[in-house]
Specification:
By secondary structure, the chain is of the alpha/beta class. The chain has one domain. A 6-stranded mixed sheet has the order 1-2-3-4-5-6. The longest helix is centred in the C-terminal third of the chain and has 26 residues.
């Protein structure tokens, strides 16, 4: 899998955690003043065997779980939902949710919006994600705190699923809704 780095960082507003920075970003254009431009290009020098990545993440999670009852496992980039990273995101989030259950909160950072997730049929890759940070980093909206730009949405799984249901209904019944809006 393509991984730029794995570290013990604070990429969650309330929890210490392990952050996995995937290599490669498919956003076009790239976000102006991106925090991680070194993660943009897919490069074979960032290719690691799955077992090595699992071992590194697991060691760091175990270290944190000795001191904290609950920790975050954040997936950032680059772009975790870039076509070449999707399967690995799904695998890692599922593996560690199964292993640690409610002791970890999985967090996905993506430039995509919920609407784009639905439109691109990406739901299967994020079924083990607990929290989301959606939207491009916009330097004009930069702020201290979480998330790092005001336009980004930080959503829990339950809220995200409600949004998905609304988006799917609109997609299925879009033309009917338009017709009904004209009827009084």
């Amino acid at each position: 899998m393509y991984v730029n780095r794995i570290g013990v960082l604070r990429d969650h507003p309330d929890l210490y955690g392990v952050s996995v920075y995937f290599q490669g970003c498919d956003a076009q254009p790239k976000c102006f003043m991106c925090h991680n431009p070194e993660t943009w290009v897919v490069d074979e020098s960032f290719w690691y065997e799955r077992e090595d990545v699992l071992k590194t993440i697991d060691e760091k999670l175990q270290l944190l779980l000795r001191s904290f009852p609950k920790v975050a496992l954040s997936f950032l980039g680059g772009e975790p939902l870039a076509p070449w990273n999707r399967e690995d995101l799904s695998f890692l989030s599922g593996f560690f949710k199964e292993r640690y259950g409610e002791r970890i909160v999985t967090v996905l950072f993506t430039w995509r919006t919920p609407k784009e997730i639905v439109k691109e049929n990406l739901l299967e890759y994020i079924q083990h994600i607990d929290e989301f940070v959606f939207g491009r980093y916009m330097h004009a909206y930069r702020r201290e705190g979480f998330p790092s730009s005001k336009n980004q949405l930080h959503l829990d799984r339950r809220t995200f699923e409600r949004i998905v249901r609304i988006l799917e209904r609109r997609e299925q019944h879009g033309s009917e809704v338009l017709v009904l809006k004209g009827v009084r």
